[in-house]
Amino acid sequence: MSASDWVLTIHVIWATWMITGVILAVAGLHWHRLLGWRVFRGAHLVGLMLTATVPIWAGGICPLTKLEDALKPSVGETSAPFMVRLMAETLYLNVDPLVLSAVTGLGALVTLLIFFAHPPWKKP
User: Pseudo-torsion of CA 98, 55, 89, 75, nearest 10°?
Assistant: First the structure.
């Protein structure tokens, strides 16, 4: 696997963590025990703001996407292994960037509102 394939793998894991965090934040409104995960909630919120939300809303792209693009092998290289192609197709959906930014922003807003409405430093 090339360096860009490793970055893609990390990128898929990171995106999965970001999506899972939003789902768990919403689920925490019903299962209050989830709202007590202080380290997870804090790290998730910081990660969401620094990698997925702020760069996109500032007109840029995710830092992991930039790194992956910079490390991609030249065009003449052989095709990527199946799992690498599958991860790329899963991560890079063929949607309008504005839709992706809106969905990402909505997820961040929901997470932020839940974070401050039910702060992790207070018992649920």
Answer: 110
